[in-house]
C-alpha cells in the first residue's frame, strides 16, 4: 500500500513526481486553497488565473495538470477541485479533502512520490487527506497478467503496468506533532483493513469460498492476537443453525460461521457486529435472471466490512470489546438446495417458511444475530447487501439504517456521515410485519413487495434478543461500484460501512455510543 509521511518542507525544494494543490470554487472563479501559497507565489500570485485559463473552476473531482514553475524540483503541479470555498473563518470539510486527495492519488498511478499541499488546519485534516490518498491509490490486479506472461495470477502491477502511487508526502503535517502522527497512524490502520475488505469483495467466488474466507480470518486472528472460532457444516448441524445450513445446502462449498473476538483489559462495553457473507449468490432455486449474476461475488460485503472493523479495532487498541460474526455460505441451486415452500428451524428455535430462496441473506443473518444476542452485548449492528429495494429507495451510493431504537439509529447515522459514508435513517413500519405471517411456520422470509427493504429489517428484528439495542445497515447500493471510479472510491468493491463500524467502536470506547 502507498506509504505516507508528514513533512514541513516547502513545496519548491521537495523532490517528487508531482505537487498536489487544492483549488476551490469561489464566487468569482477558482480560488487557490491554503497549503499552496509557495506554489502560487512561484506563479507570481497568478495561479488562480492560470488555472481558470486552463478551464479549471474548482468543482469537486476536477483535476488540472500544469508544468511546475522554474526552480521546483518536481516537474508537475496537479490542481484538484475541493468544491465550494468555505465561508469566512470556516475550514474545508474533511470529506472534501478526502475526495480531493483520492482523485489525485488515482491520477498518480505509476508515480513514485507525490507531495500533497492541501489545506491542513488540524489533525483531522491530516487524517482525512491520508485516508483519501490511501483509498484513492487502491488497485486490485491480482488476476491481471499485463502482458507479462507469467500466468501466476500474482502480478502486483496496476492496469496497463502502472503501479499505485508508492509514497505520499503530506505537506503541512508536522512529523513531531503527536496529534498529527496519531491521525496518520489511524488513517493507515483503517485504510489498510478497508482495502483488505475491498480485496475480499473483488476476489472471484471460485477462490473465496466460505472455507477460504474463514481461513483468511484465522490468519488475521493469529497476526493481531484475536480469538477466533469457526463452525463448519458439521458443527452448525450439531448446534441447529438451520438458516445458515439451509442457504448453504445447495453448494459443494460448505458454509461456515466465524466468530472473531477482540477484547481489551480496560473495556466496559461490548459491541457485536454481524456480517452477511454470501460468497456467491445465484438466487438458489429462485434463480436470478440473466444480467443479475455477474456481480454476485459482492454479496459477502457485509462480512468483509465486519471482519475489517474488528481487525481495525484491534490495531487501534480501542478500549472496547468487539465481536464479529461472519455468516458465510454460498447460495446455489442443486438437488440438495432449499426449495420455495420448505420450512427451516433456525438457531433461535423459530421456524421460517422459505417463499423465495433468493431472500437468503436474512436467513444466515438471523442465525448469527441470535448467536450474537446470547452474549448480551451493549449493541448489535448487522451489515448486509440485503435488498434491491434499498437500492431503489436510496440509489447506489447511500446505505439505509434501520434500528429498534431511534436514538441509536441517529447515532449510527451521525457516525456514518462523520466519516464520509452517505447513509439515511429508515423506518420499521409495524403494519408491514403482518405480510410475513405464514400458515405453516412462525414467519415467512418474504412479505409485501413494496417496502421490501423495510420488510427485511422487520424480519431480522425477530431474531435480536429481547432488550438488546440493534441496528441494521443495508449496504446493497454502495458496497459494489459498477460505474467509474470517483473521489477515493474505485470501481468494484468499495469497503462500504467499515469506517462507520470503526467510528462506532471509537464512540463506544469514548463512552459516547448514545
TrEMBL record:
Organism of origin: Streptomyces hyaluromycini
GO MF annotation: an example: aminopeptidase activity
Cytosol aminopeptidase domain mapped to chain residues: 356-363
SUPFAM superfamilies, sorted: Macro domain-like (SSF52949), Zn-dependent exopeptidases (SSF53187)
Record lineage: Bacteria, Bacillati, Actinomycetota, Actinomycetes, Kitasatosporales
InterPro entries membership: Leucine_aapep/pepB (IPR011356), Macro_dom-like (IPR043472), Peptidase_M17_C (IPR000819), Peptidase_M17_leu_NH2_pept (IPR023042), Peptidase_M17_N (IPR008283)
Catalytic activity: Release of an N-terminal amino acid, Xaa-|-Yaa-, in which Xaa is preferably Leu, but may be other amino acids including Pro although not Arg or Lys, and Yaa may be Pro. Amino acid amides and methyl esters are also readily hydrolyzed, but rates on arylamides are exceedingly low; Release of an N-terminal amino acid, preferentially leucine, but not glutamic or aspartic acids
Cofactor(s) needed by this chain: Mn(2+)
Residues reported in the UniProt entry to bind Mn(2+) 1: 281, 358, 360
Family that this chain belongs to: Belongs to the peptidase M17 family.
Cofactor note: Binds 2 manganese ions per subunit.
Active site annotation, chain numbering: 288, 362
The protein's name: Probable cytosol aminopeptidase
EC number: 3.4.11.1, 3.4.11.10
